[in-house]
Amino acid sequence: MTDSLPMKFLSNIPKDIAWSIFVDLVNDTRIRRSWRWQCALISKEVKAWVEPALYRCVGLYSSHKVTKFCETIANHPSKPANFFTNHVKTLAVGVQPSAQEMILLLKGCTGVEALLLQFCLPPATANERIEALWAGLSPKDLCIPIAAIAKANRSFIHPILRNATRIELLYDPILVWDWTSFRDLESVTHVSVSVQLLHRDAEPPIRRMDWLERLAKDIVPLLPVSLKVFIVSLFDLSTIAGDRPSFLQAISEIDIRLVIGINYSPWNKWHWFIKNAVPHTLVDNQDFWEQAEAIVRRRQQGALKWPPKPGHPHEAAILQDLPGYPHDWE
To answer: Where do the segments described as Disordered lie (predicted)?
Structure first.
């Protein structure tokens, strides 16, 4: 901490105004994140003001960040005991944590409103201790690999799903998920199914696409009345061989609410096709749920033809780059 210029500045203005200035500053995403974190070093008082905002959205995309954040949860003498439960509202994890780290994250952040687990979790990690912790969480937004849930509980009656309105299931064809209870969900409005292969050589790539199309056809009769958008996500467009546009059209014809999400990257060997196929759908600061909503709404209003016309994949797909997920913690 320092008692230099910032402290002299604080001493000359009312505390409520100083508090507002610093909270607005750390919430301003136009400012480099590392600079915003520097506010916590000004004084103990300013640290207490800004830390709730700094910890509101936590993104962990490296093993180092996961370990560091777990250590902070386990040992935080300067923070109240329930600090992380009260203030961490979005937790995104993009790298495989250890079982002990998973336990620390789930126990320490029980107040999360958005829990986004974006990794391919080995089935062995869904042990009894982790399974018992899911019941203590009630996120509205949930992204979860089905392997993170114990085999006997892989269905929509699982406690972690009871209040979710937007659900992303990271799916693997070798694992079984019970879809029969899907239609009974009353609060869900958005669902995305993404193929995340644990055993990538188990089947030829084109068969994986056939499997995905069959899955979509099986799920559609079970869609709940409350559902607005159903996204089928493709993370490797190159596996569709030479029939990419017709495949996109075939899947999107299954239901008017069904939209295809394509993982876009300029390093993807098929990025030229993706950009030409769906040139107008990637919008700054618009996440893939909003993109999909726009397509479904335009279909329902008649602005987009449904089923899509042959050779018009832009009417079937969105670019799924997930810009709304939080940046790296610290």
So the answer is: 305-330
Q: What tens digit of pLDDT does each residue of 255-274 get?
A: 889 887 776 544 444 443 44
Answer for the pair 43, 6: CB distance below 8 angstroms, yes or no.
yes
Token pair recorded at residue 220: 């559609």
State pLDDT tens for residues 179-193: 999 998 889 999 988
